[in-house]
Amino acid sequence: MESLLKTIEQTDINTHLKVKCFSWLKYIIPFWGFLCVLVVEHYIFVDYDNKFEYTISWGYANVIIIFEYCFVEAINQTMRKKFFTLQRRLKWIKKNINCEKTGPLYKLNILRDFMNADLESKILKIRELSRCHYMMIETAEKISRMFSLNILLTLLVILCNTINGLYNIVTHLDKIDYNKESICRSSIWILFQTYISTIIIRSWYSLANEANTSSIIVHEIWNEYIVRLKEGKWNYFQFIVLKFHTTKLKFTADGYFELDLKFFHSVLSCVATYVIILVQIEYPN
Q1: pLDDT at residue 102, rounded to an integer
Q2: Counting Cβ atoms within 10 Å, is residue 251 exposed (0-12), middle (13-18) or buried (19+)?
Q3: Which of 17, 107, 192, 220 has CB 3.0 to 4.6 Å from 34, enough for a Cys bridge?
Q4: Is the pLDDT of residue 113 over 50?
Q5: Intra-chain end-to-end CA distance of the chain, in Å
Q6: Is residue 43 predicted with pLDDT exceeding 80?
């Protein structure tokens, strides 16, 4: 991990972006709100032996999850800033192309030769940015593999807890004298699990989305340059563009499913399916 973090810092892309202090608090505060409500509710309203020990052991695992998320989010935020700075440099190159094409002196042969010489230097800059882009994507994939098993187990536990909470709500509503406190507790529990899964998925999905946006900008630059390039330079720049398009960043939970917004669709269908099966087993008639 230490060597990977050094690789990120040594990347030839200086962000020069202001770091928002305690930006992670907007995710931590709701977490502690949910956790405090559930702990108090468990400790006061639920009747079982060894309340204190059970509450501590139950809350300890969730605290570990959120602190691990803070560590991962700090790393991902640094990489997102690197990708964002790379995109700004690409946009600057694209902006200069448009200025060159629409300038009043572009039709002069002397100025056109000068711009063509400058065109080659811009291609070299894009090649250097492509190298940095590939190195950061490779580093991000290595870091994600270090946390992939933890993410998989965490999301599987969240899935089981969500199914269990929804099943408790359905079975309680079927009774005439259902327990409102139990339904309320299960509802808060489901929201809590949904929140944890959301912040985990968001951290990785936003990083992948930020990294893959660069290929769109490079393709727009390619559309502007294609008419002005000679055949040799055309093939070389085409290779750089293809390199951007083929180095897409995609995170998975140990290879089982992708960490993107489609994950929530899969979870919703899975929860609905298993809850229906459990209800049919509980009430066969």
Answers
A1: 47
A2: buried
A3: 192
A4: no
A5: 56
A6: no
Tell me the mean pLDDT in the region 136-148.
88
- Among 163, 228, 220, 153, smallest CA distance to 189 is for 163
Mean pLDDT computed over 269-285: 83
CA angle 231, 234, 236 (to 5 degrees): 115
Long-range contacts of 129-133 (CB under 8 A, 24+ apart): 129/13, 129/86, 129/89, 129/90, 129/214, 130/218, 130/240, 130/243, 130/244, 132/11, 132/12, 132/13, 132/82, 132/86, 133/83, 133/86, 133/211, 133/214, 133/244, 133/247
Q: Which of 26, 44, 29, 30 is nearest to 184 (CA)?
A: 44
Task: Report yes or no: 78 and 24 within 8 Å, Cβ to Cβ.
Answer: no
| pLDDT tens string 223-244 | 777 666 555 666 777 788 888 8
Query: What are the start-end ranges of the H helices in 174-284?
Result: 180-225, 231-246, 262-282
- Read off the pTM: 0.78
Alpha-carbon distances of 141 from 44, 86, 243, rounded to whole Å: 45, 18, 17
- Report the sign of the C-alpha dihedral through residues 257, 261, 262, 268, in that order: positive
